[in-house]
Amino acid sequence: VQLQASGGGLVQAGGSLRLSCAASGSIFSINAMGWYRQAPGKQRELVAAITRGGITSYADSVKGRFTISRDNAKNLVYLQMNSLKAEDTAVYYCNVVVAGSWLTSWGQGTLVTVSS
Fold first, then answer.
1. CA dist list (Å): 105 to 35, 92, 93
2. Could you tell me which residue, 88 or 30, shows the higher pLDDT?
């Protein structure tokens, strides 16, 4: 499976961005999809995930501000980010669950920079 994330950019605190990720390759094997982020000097963390059936989960730090969604027919996953804060600044990566595990190979992420 290959993943291509897009939609990052520079935004002021309180603003919004929408990230998109397209999956290609062995897409029939994909179950859950999700978004991770890695801020400078910090470990990569799971921000949001969504199952094939649409069940979502979020990190406490983004609950109520971020919304994950997916288009199974087009193999796309989105992350709508509202009320952005400076601490949301990070490189955002999409990932997918195949055979019960998140892929260990990461595609190119997309940089989100929130200015305060």
1. 14, 14, 11
2. 88
